[in-house]
Design a protein that fits this description.
Elements (H helix, E strand, L loop, with lengths): L2 H6 L3 E4 L11 E2 L5 E2 L4 H12 L3 E5 L5 H10 L3 E3 L5 H12 L6 E5 L5 H6 L2 E4 L5 H6 L2 E2 L8 H12 L3 H6 L4
Parallel strand pairs: 1-4, 1-6, 4-5, 6-7, 7-8
Antiparallel strand pairs: 2-3
Helix pairs in contact: 2-7
């Protein structure tokens, strides 16, 4: 099935965090407190996605208080941290929403994402993902992880669904 046809049915985007919503770096200060940097346009993209009635969630193998803070700030619908079995976590969300896997887009960057990518209606990877992951992806973003890749993906899907222009009108464009 062609990419545009896959995008038409997407209602839920699920994303990895480290390496997708961040640049993959994990920084600890002298007190052992972890910091991460999130791109503001990814946050705006998530808000725009939600504004059209779609849902967004994250599934990550690591657990981090900073991820919870940022996702809560954005009103992210599903936050699953410390989840090694990403596919089963996604299936629970899909079942809860009574969706079909064809209604889901998953974006990842490393080997732990491949199973979920293969079972989603659409899969994406960031530009700097592991090569084996990019080979599996239906779409590889032009942007690297933590550099606006989520926004790029959301904008592309919304344009395909003919929803982008209605959002622009809300900003006087």
């Amino acid at each position: 099935m062609k990419l545009d046809a896959r995008m038409q049915s997407i209602e839920l985007i699920l994303s990895d965090v480290d390496g997708v919503m961040t640049d993959g770096g994990i920084t600890y200060d002298n007190q052992g407190i972890e910091t991460k940097t999130f791109h503001v346009r990814d946050g705006m993209g998530i808000k725009l996605w939600q504004k059209t009635g779609h849902r967004f969630g994250v599934i990550t193998a690591r657990s981090s208080h900073i991820v919870k803070l940022r996702m809560d700030e954005l009103g992210v619908d599903f936050i699953r941290q410390g989840t090694e079995q990403k596919l089963s976590a996604a299936q629970q969300i899909i079942d809860e929403l009574q969706l079909d896997p064809s209604n889901v887009c998953y974006i990842g960057d490393d080997l732990t994402d491949v199973g979920l990518m293969k079972s989603s209606g659409m899969s994406a990877s960031v530009a700097d993902a592991a090569d084996d992951v990019k080979k599996v992806a239906d779409y590889v973003t032009k942007s690297a992880g933590g550099k606006g890749a989520i926004r790029e993906l959301i904008e592309m899907i919304l344009k395909s669904q003919k929803r982008w222009n209605e959002l622009l009108q809300g900003y006087g464009i």
